[in-house]
């Protein structure tokens, strides 16, 4: 890392983002300097915080124990490098230098520019039409969130969203317009949920939002806000509404399958009680 060949690497983000966790580089860099950020990461990801940090930086999986050990060594190595170079090479360079040249614990560094990494991540995880997360990402995320919810007794909420009378939209305006409507509703959902929420295309014209650490009342408020935003959206003079089914984990409902079933029942209630409504 000290030779010229590697100098240009400093301007490149060497991060292959963790596909499921999407930890932003800025957060990773901040976590090194700012104990409050590291603590927040630990609160959110519990024992996996260090493993995720390293996975995001290197795209290599290490056990949580190893990761904690490496992370502390990287922080020290970063300080030494900064002193030796009389400038800050950045936490990414320090990490790769430590992993490749000092601990030799990474057989081959995966070096990818940040822009390319983001593109790969987006293409691998997001549905092209709605730009919401794909069903496969949703399944993994929900499973994981349910496990966390049970372990830490913090509820996760699930909102299932089904566009009303969408067949009629396709039949009246054509599939291309139908696609435009779906894309616009995807944008509307993405723009309306929190950073920590996971909006996804559940299938066809059915969408979903996973809301970690969210109680029923909050989930209902957010669903109601989404419902009214969808209702207010106009795409090429087409207006649609959507029905919402909300469920949260409880002592009885604590796995992904049960949570989906419960949200699906609520969605069915919303449909049979006249659509364009939120039920739980
Ligand atoms: N344009 C478009 N249409 C889709 C897509 N995915 C699913 N659909 C359509 O969504 C429609 C869903 O129709 P139904 O399941 O009958 O439901 P609905 O008409 O919305 O009726 P309710 O759910 O009872 O309100 C079907 O016509 C599907 O072809 C898509 O990606 N693009």
From TrEMBL:
Its EC number is 2.7.7.65. InterPro entries: Diguanylate_Cyclase, GGDEF_dom, Nucleotide_cyclase, Rev_trsase/Diguanyl_cyclase. Pfam families: GGDEF (PF00990). Transmembrane segments: none annotated. Residues 154-280 form the GGDEF domain. It catalyses: 2 GTP = 3',3'-c-di-GMP + 2 diphosphate. This is diguanylate cyclase.
């Amino acid at each position: 890392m000290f030779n010229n060949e590697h100098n240009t690497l400093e301007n490149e983000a060497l991060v292959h983002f963790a596909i499921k966790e999407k930890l932003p580089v800025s957060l990773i860099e901040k976590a090194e300097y700012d104990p409050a950020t590291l603590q927040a990461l630990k609160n959110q990801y519990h024992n996996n915080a260090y493993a995720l940090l390293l996975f995001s930086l290197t795209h290599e999986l290490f056990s949580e124990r190893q990761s904690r050990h490496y992370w502390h060594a990287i922080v020290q190595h970063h300080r030494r490098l900064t002193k030796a170079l009389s400038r800050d090479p950045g936490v990414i360079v320090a990490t790769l230098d430590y992993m490749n040249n000092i601990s030799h614990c990474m057989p081959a560094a995966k070096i990818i520019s940040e822009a390319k990494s983001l593109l790969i991540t987006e293409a691998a995880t997001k549905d092209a039409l709605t730009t919401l997360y794909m069903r496969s990402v949703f399944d993994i995320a929900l499973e994981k969130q349910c496990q966390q919810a049970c372990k830490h007794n913090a509820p996760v909420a699930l909102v299932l969203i089904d566009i009303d009378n969408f067949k009629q939209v396709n039949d009246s305006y054509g599939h291309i317009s139908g696609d435009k409507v779906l894309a616009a509703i995807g944008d509307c959902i993405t723009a309306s949920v929190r950073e920590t929420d996971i909006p996804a295309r559940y299938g066809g014209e059915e969408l979903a939002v996973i809301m970690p650490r969210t109680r029923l009342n909050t989930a209902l408020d957010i669903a109601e806000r989404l419902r009214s935003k969808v209702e207010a959206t106009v795409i090429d003079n087409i207006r649609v509404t959507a029905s919402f089914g909300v469920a949260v984990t409880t002592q009885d409902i604590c796995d992904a399958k049960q949570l989906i079933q419960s949200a699906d029942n609520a969605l069915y209630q919303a449909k049979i009680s006249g659509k364009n409504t939120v039920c739980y």
